[in-house]
Design goal:
Mean pLDDT: 96
Keywords: Carbohydrate metabolism, Isomerase, NAD
Number of strands: 13
Cofactor: NAD(+)
Strand content: 15-25%
Number of helices: 11
Largest sheet: 7 strands, parallel
Number of domains: 2
Bound molecules: UDP-4-deoxy-4-formamido-beta-L-arabinopyranose
Distance between the termini: 39 Å
Subunit structure: Homodimer.
Strand order of the largest sheet: 3-2-1-4-5-6-11
Helix content: 40-55%
Structural class: alpha/beta
Pfam families: GDP_Man_Dehyd
CATH architecture of the largest domain: 3-Layer(aba) Sandwich
Low-confidence stretches: none
Radius of gyration: 19 Å
CATH superfamily of the largest domain: NAD(P)-binding Rossmann-like Domain
Catalytic activity: UDP-alpha-D-glucose = UDP-alpha-D-galactose
Shape: globular
CATH topology of the largest domain: Rossmann fold
Order of helices and strands: EHEHEHEHHEHEEHEEEHEEHEHH
């Protein structure tokens, strides 16, 4: 049996899919989650897929003592994938201190333990939001880091800097920051997927909730951008591809096959799609008619962002395998499943 891995935020959207991918590669998993943005149904979903129930600690990483007790209880854990963070851009603007406290103190408390170990491997959930509106597309990892457009984005930038500085003084501590573009879709079994609480902020869950009748109509936030059809461009990556990349990145550190003890990788498909293209792809791949209208631009949106994936392709030997149609189909299958569950309750 391979080493035991801690996955913080492991009951979240990307976290749960990564736990499945880790278990399928033979890793034992311990999840820390405070259930602030998830539920125990996700633990049941993971178990249904892999027939293995991960160990689960319901705790808040802002509790320094609880974090110390955790690492005492699990002294053999030296691999961590850290997802746990608040991630709503708009909410972070209204409540910055909540974001700085939650996203940064939890990171610091974990690093304080890992950096003292003989050797430790750490994967950090970062985001393409650190680039802001990049000057050059597709975006490479050495693109300039722009002033964050939100406290959420700033916690990702600061988080990367905290990790990099820790690596500089602890050579036995190895870390990788993974900058996600736009994660979408769900596990093909539809046992786990994206569970937005309240009104979805992101495009794809809003599309699937509109198609299933929970939302009246999708608003397309602006069609007067300098793009092929006037709507913003993003790099939509299937969550299954993203999960696999985390396992590959962690293995690289556990196997000590990286001469650098800190590195950064963009995780995207390398392809950009406009909002209207996503709508067309959804309608074509599901056969569902989507009701939408054009509305005003959304504050803080960048015009276009899609990844240069050469570094992850060559160094991690990882490449996104799913296309947009497949990702949207999986999101729709999941939405119908969630609806059925909700109807039962
Ligand atoms: C995508 C496009 C919207 C909703 C955010 C975070 C980023 C990451 C991914 C965490 C944009 C348009 C959206 C709607 C719309 N999260 N849109 N109508 O903003 O690219 O990235 O989620 O790491 O950090 O910033 O994703 O899905 O919100 O928007 O027209 O109802 O869809 O304007 O062009 P975004 P998104």
């Amino acid at each position: 049996m391979k080493s035991k891995i801690l996955v913080t935020g492991g009951l979240g959207f990307i976290g749960s899919h990564t736990v499945v991918a880790l278990q399928e590669q033979g890793y034992e998993v311990v999840i820390i989650d405070n259930l602030s943005n998830s539920s125990l149904d996700v633990l049941a979903g993971i178990t249904k897929i892999t027939q293995i129930t991960p160990e689960f600690e319901n705790m808040d990483l802002r509790d320094k003592e609880a974090v110390a007790n955790f690492f005492e209880k699990y002294p053999d854990i030296n691999g961590v994938i850290h997802f746990a963070a608040s991630k709503a851009v708009g909410e972070s603007v209204e409540n910055p201190l909540l974001y700085y406290e939650n996203n940064l103190s939890s990171l610091i408390y974990i690093l304080q333990h890992l950096s003292q170990k003989e050797q430790a491997s750490f994967i950090f959930s970062s985001s393409c939001t650190v680039y802001g509106q990049a000057d050059t597309l597709p975006i490479k990892e050495d693109a300039p880091i722009k002033k964050a457009m939100s406290p959420y984005g700033n916690t990702k930038q600061i988080g990367e800097e905290i990790i990099e500085d820790t690596c500089k003084v602890h050579p036995a501590f190895k870390a990788i920051s993974l900058r996600y573009f736009n994660p979408i879709g769900a596990h093909p079994s539809a046992e786990i997927g994206e569970l937005p609480i309240g009104t979805p902020q992101n495009l794809v869950p809003f599309i699937t909730q509109t198609a299933i009748g929970i939302r009246e109509q999708l608003s397309v936030f602006g069609n007067d951008y300098p793009t092929k059809d006037g709507t913003c461009i993003r790099d939509y990556i299937h969550v299954m591809d993203l999960a696999k990349a985390h396992v590959v990145a962690l293995k690289r550190l556990l196997d000590n096959s990286s001469e650098k003890n800190y590195d950064v990788f963009n995780l995207g498909t390398g392809k950009g799609n406009t909002v209207l293209e996503v709508i067309q792809s959804f309608q074509k791949s599901t056969g569902e008619e989507l009701s939408y209208k054009v509305a005003d631009r959304r504050e803080g949106d960048v015009i276009a962002a899609y990844a240069d994936t050469n570094k992850a392709n060559s160094v991690l030997n990882w490449k996104a395998a799913y296309n947009l149609d497949e990702a949207l189909k999986s999101a729709w299958k999941w939405e119908k499943k969630v609806m059925k569950i909700e109807k039962k309750h």
